[in-house]
Amino acid sequence: MKKMTIIFSIIFLAYSCGCSDEGTDYVNFNEFESSIIPTNINSQVEFENQNSEIITAEYTEFDNEPIYSTPSEPSCHVYIFESSSVILSITELELNFRLNIKVLDYGNRREIIFIIQTDEEMYFINGSVFDESEDIEQFLTNYNSNGFEFNDVFIFSGLIENEISKIIYEPQVGVRLIEFNDSTYLKLIE
């Protein structure tokens, strides 16, 4: 009886799907996108604040797991999207940042989503929701603040007022500068 139930269940699952197998598409980062969050990012880094105090931080939990998606019924087409994430923990200040980048493409438009999240806020390039139809490299810019100059960086800011005003991120390096609304900052020591 158990064999009949199992066989019936398998047949039911196979024929009740209502869709035909249409294959799998792999959507990968281009060369620049894959370098934004490097796999060899230093695990421990140091930041210096405005008082010349050294604050230790650590990159942990690098993840390069793909995202699986089936966009619509009755299609059984599967899309596998590349994604990367890493956590930057600044234990002394009780700050954790999750840096996420993923590529999406359902055949009609390729999208890149790159955000930095804390427990309280999401930070976006140029402080707004990224227009995914554009090339992410065009958002690289130069930035000067507190006597520091940064070239070819992304500037992240939140959508709501929070203690953090800006996060400056350099591809292949990581977070370079965190500016707070009270005019304090943390600058990466290289």
In short:
By secondary structure, the protein is mainly beta. 11% of the residues lie in helices and 48% in strands.
Describe the structure.
- The protein has helices at residues 2-16, 31-36, and strands at 24-27, 44-49, 54-63, 67-69, 78-81, 83-90, 95-105, 110-117, 122-125, 141-145, 148-158, 164-170, 174-180, 185-188.
- It contains 2 helices and 14 strands; from the N terminus they run H-E-H-E-E-E-E-E-E-E-E-E-E-E-E-E.
- The chain is elongated.
- The longest helix has 15 residues, at 2-16.
- By secondary structure, the chain is mainly β.
- The model is unreliable at 1-16 (pLDDT under 50).
- A hairpin with a 5-residue loop joins strand 11 and strand 12 (164-170).
Indicate the overall shape.
elongated
Q: Count every helix, treating DSSP H or I runs of 4 or more residues as helices.
A: 2
Q: What's the total count of β strands?
A: 14
Question: What is the radius of gyration computed over CA atoms, rounded to a whole number of angstroms?
Answer: 21 Å
Helix content, binned percent: 10-25%
End-to-end distance, in Å? 68 Å
Main features:
single chain; 190 residues; mainly beta; 10-stranded antiparallel β-barrel; 3-stranded mixed β-sheet; disordered N terminus
Secondary-structure blueprint of this entry?
Elements: H1 2-16, E1 24-27, H2 31-36, E2 44-49, E3 54-63, E4 67-69, E5 78-81, E6 83-90, E7 95-105, E8 110-117, E9 122-125, E10 141-145, E11 148-158, E12 164-170, E13 174-180, E14 185-188
Parallel strand pairs: 1-5
Antiparallel strand pairs: 2-3, 2-14, 3-6, 4-5, 6-7, 7-8, 8-9, 9-11, 10-11, 11-12, 12-13, 13-14
